[in-house]
């Protein structure tokens, strides 16, 4: 009996292996809604307030003290936000340093933030002595112009400082909207 099943299976396998998919009717290929190639969708331009970002002063604890990181507003050029930084270490003031920092965020990353999605980023920092620092983190938006940010800075191969703080996009239109709302007087009855 096994012999018959074996012969049956081997005799039917070539039939199963044949391409039995029906061919697409040529008239359907030109029908609307069926596209041969994906269309390129032009991305919407970014709002002008993405040209500058302000990050609040951040503080983290270390074994015997604390590190406070302050940065003036970041300015965006191409896909890179750049600024300078000052790190003050208390009570070990001789470890204080300053330098420059940059973080890469593409236009698509900024659109994800505007849509309310978490965005991961990478960057780099260099102390005033040109010592490199690896920078990584993520941003969680609260709204289109602000949110929370977690930044990890590697000051050496084995030492990582983690800063939790907030960010706000403060480019031209973001500050103009705030100024207009302050200066607009209520209508007289």
Describe the structure.
The chain is an alpha+beta fold. The protein is built from four helices and ten strands. It has an eight-stranded antiparallel barrel. β5 and β6 form a beta hairpin.
Side by side, the strands of the main sheet go 1-4-5-6-7-8-9-10
Question: What's the end-to-end separation, in Å?
Answer: 100 Å
> What low-confidence regions span 5 or more consecutive residues with pLDDT below 50?
1-22, 34-41, 174-189
What is the β-strand count? 10
Dominant shape: elongated
Main beta sheet: strand number and arrangement? 8 strands, antiparallel, barrel
Helix and strand string, N-terminal first?
A: HHEEEEEEHEEEEH
Strand content: 35-45%
Number of helices: 4
Helix content: 10-25%
Mind telling me the C-alpha Rg? 29 Å
Category from helices, strands and their pairing = alpha+beta
**Average predicted local confidence, pLDDT:** 79
